[in-house]
Amino acid sequence: MTIHHHAGKPARPQDRINIGRLVADYYTKTPDVSLPQQQVAFGTSGHRGNANKSSFNQAHIVAICQAVAEYRQEQGFSGPLYLGKDTHALSEPAFTSAICVLIANNVPVVIQQDHGFTPTPVISRLIISHNKANDSQADGLIITPSHNPPTDGGIKYNPPHGGPAEGGITKQIEQRANALIANNLADVKQVSIEQAMASPLLSREDFIEHYVSQLDQVIDMAAIAKAGVRIGVDPLGGSGIDYWPVIKQKYGLNIEVVNQVVDGSFSFMPLDKDGKIRMDCSSPYAMAGLIAMKDDFDIAVGNDPDFDRHGIVTPSGGLMNPNHYLAVAINYLMTHRQWPASAKIGKTLVSSSLIDRVAKHIDRPLSEVPVGFKWFVDGLQDATYAFGGEESAGAAFIARDGSCWTTDKDGFIMALLAAEIIAVTGKNPHQHYLELAEKLGAPCYGRVEAPATLEQKKVLTALSSDAVTADILAGEKIIKILSHAPGNNAAIGGIKVVTDNGWFAARPSGTEEIYKIYAESFIDNDHLQQIISEAQVIVSTAFKQAGL
Fold first, then answer.
1. How far apart, in whole angstroms, are the C-alpha atoms of residue 11 and residue 494?
2. Is residue 401 located within the same domain as residue 480?
3. 514 and 402 co-located in one domain
4. What's the gap between Cα 56 and its chain centre?
5. Minimal CB count within 10 Å: which of 51, 70, 537, 542?
């Protein structure tokens, strides 16, 4: 992709969104679910869309919440539903819509006590804590489109295990929601917001205290405090904005929140690589502000709006590649925690093979699964997985005592772990990465995207290993062609081709009209580009053979 000429620079007036028009379209536009782009569609992280384009509107939210309420009743869940929201402009109206439907369906709803913002990992932790102490089953909804642009809205469902809902559940919810919309929402129950707010079914709790007070169960906060690690934090205007000051005070940490702005237009953000405002904490362009401060702190950290992703900035290396930090985090945790030797390291199949090499080096079992954090949920819940991570800067791990901490991605603990690594070892994560690369090899990693029609995406999803007839990739013998993940034998929705020193994976996006090629080389960047080029030919050939 060509880098936009204004990438990494402050947003200009023409880059800013019209929040008034966006919110008006949320309430006034009616989606046509005969059109695929306007249907409720759950990707790996819930339903996302844009009110201006009729893909995230009030009809979507009330239908989804009605479907969730019916699913809860069908499953016999009698515990509370924890409802959270991030700082996107559409999250507030969607939050209100959700409450009106859930209360009308006699669902006991719990929200942050000051109606404030709630990060995804906090909802997960609340669900897990409740269900550990009670017989009734709690679940949750989070209103967020993650790091997507300010025009977008999103909602995702976490069932009683606390993590992202499995495909069977989301398929049931989206089918019911689309049927409700098609029937003009006739079967959707709603009360007024005044009735909902006055209902005894709606309660308010201090989510911040609940989450922060338990952080020392998963991170060695005392070590960080004792070492006086200087931590810079940029919440990128996200839902964790009110959590960092409480973390600082409770544990006596040397934290400075360098950006305290919350603005639904996110007009304070530097533009991303494509010239759009996007709160991607793994992007050097979106993180340009924090990177410029790298020498002011021992470690600087950023998170996306719902705080399920992390960005790590060091004085020596700037913004770390997410794959590099995952490898460092895994190596540190597995050598500094007293966890069972049988506990697995979980990675998605598009994450770096450096993780494979780390696992082999420290003699720990590795499990490679398809894209989507949902594949780690069961393992994190019963602690058969010690760690689960994605190349897109999302990860979580078990508590220090080996018990379950969360079953969703947790940007807080991944950020704080970077400070713990410094406190305990005296070296920052980038320095640890350089040591790993010296011992195990330095990977070159890339990802490219290309437009894809719905038909092309279906072809790519259904590709089998037989679709690749070549036996050489970028000059190396192909040793594996995968259409199913080796860790759980689940279909990967595409293919992965592997050699001794490189690989590529091709798969369609679950929410956008594009396909993605991920690739890595342990030789050099020229070899990486050759892998990507040959991967594009393989995908194009598959499309041609399908007559597309």
1. 36
2. no
3. no
4. 19
5. 537
CA distance 312 to 200: 43
Supply the CATH number for residue 461's domain: 3.30.310.50
Q: Are residues 436 and 448 in the same domain?
A: no
Q: Each residue of 182-194: b (16+ CB within 10 Å) or e?
A: eeebeebbbbeee
**Which amino acid, 230?**
R
pTM of the model: 0.96
The residue annotated as part of the active site, out of 45, 54, 91, 146, is 146
Contact 373, 163 (CB under 8 A): yes
A 10 A CB-CB count for 548 gives 13
Provide φ and ψ at 497, rounded to 5°. -120, 130
| Residues 264 and 409 placed together within one structural domain of the fold | yes
Q: Report CA-CA distances (Å) from 143 to 45, 86, 273.
A: 11, 6, 26
Q: Write out the residue range of the structural domain in which residue 410 sits.
A: 216-440
- pLDDT tens digits, residue range 102-128? 999 999 999 999 999 999 999 999 999
Q: Is the pLDDT of residue 203 over 90?
A: yes
Q: Return d(Cα 249, Cα 237) in angstroms, integer.
A: 20
Query: Could you tell me if 312 and 428 lie in one domain?
Result: yes
Convert the pLDDT of each residue in 475-491 to its tens digit.
Answer: 999 999 999 999 999 99
Classify residue 374: in a domain, yes or no: yes
Assess whether 259 and 390 both reside in one domain: yes
> How far is 270 from 255, CA to CA, in rounded Å?
23
Q: Give domain status of residue 370, yes or no.
A: yes
**Residue 117 belongs to domain with CATH number:** 3.40.120.10
Q: Say whether 496 sits in a helix, a strand or coil.
A: strand
pLDDT score of 511 more than 80: no
Annotated catalytic residue 146: yes
Which residues, including other chains, have CB under 8 Å from residue 18's CB and lie 6 or more apart?
none
Which tokens go with 488?
A: 């759980």
Is residue 274 one of the residues assigned to a domain?
Answer: yes
Q: Residues 33, 182: contact at Cβ < 8 Å?
A: yes
